[in-house]
Amino acid sequence: MSGRILVVEDQDDNKQIMRDLLSSAGYEVLEASSGIEAIAVAQRERPDLILMDIQLPGMDGHEATRRLKGDPDMMHIPIVAVTSYAFDGDRHEAIQAGSDAYFAKPVSPREILAKVESLVSAGTA
């Protein structure tokens, strides 16, 4: 597979896991550690897909998603919400914010890679 994936995650160990998984599948991995940084990297780099943590310092992942989806130049980029805070209603809130998919941590590497591949190869990315 090929493509550029922006991983938005503030925890270094989680970021490393995603970097290793995606790199081993042939993706170029871009990184951001906050919602504000995610928007800046997305505007500059135009990734094919964004994996967005929800609990981030400053601007959370929901707000970053809303802003990205509200930008006509970036609204086409699929965003997958990934969070360790999986409470009732979280999936709904993520989808309402504009996420194209939702995963609760711990994420099965096989499941997340399958979703990334389907979104990137479907041409939605």
If you had to describe this structure to a student in words, what would you say it looks like?
The chain is α/β, with parallel strands linked by helices and 125 residues long. The protein has a domain at 1-87: Response regulator (Rossmann fold). 43% of the residues lie in helices and 19% in strands. The protein is built from five helices and five strands, in the order βαβαβαβαβα. A five-stranded parallel beta sheet has the order 2-1-3-4-5, sandwiched between helices. Strand 4, helix 4 (90-97) and strand 5 (101-104) form a beta-alpha-beta unit. Helix 2 runs parallel beside helix 3.
Which tags fit this structure?
single chain; 125 residues; alpha/beta; Rossmann fold; five-stranded parallel beta sheet; 5 strands
Portion of residues in helices? 40-55%
Most strands sheet = 5 strands, parallel
The number of distinct helices, counting runs of at least 4 residues, comes to 5
Reading side by side through the largest sheet, how are the strands ordered? 2-1-3-4-5
Please state the CA-atom Rg, rounded to the nearest Å: 13 Å
CATH superfamily of the domain at 1-87: Response regulator
Q: By helix and strand content, what is the structural category?
A: alpha/beta
Strand proportion, as a percent range, falls in 15-25%
How many angstroms separate the termini? Answer: 13 Å
Q: Summarize model confidence as the mean pLDDT.
A: 90
Q: How many DSSP-defined strands?
A: 5
Gross geometry: globular
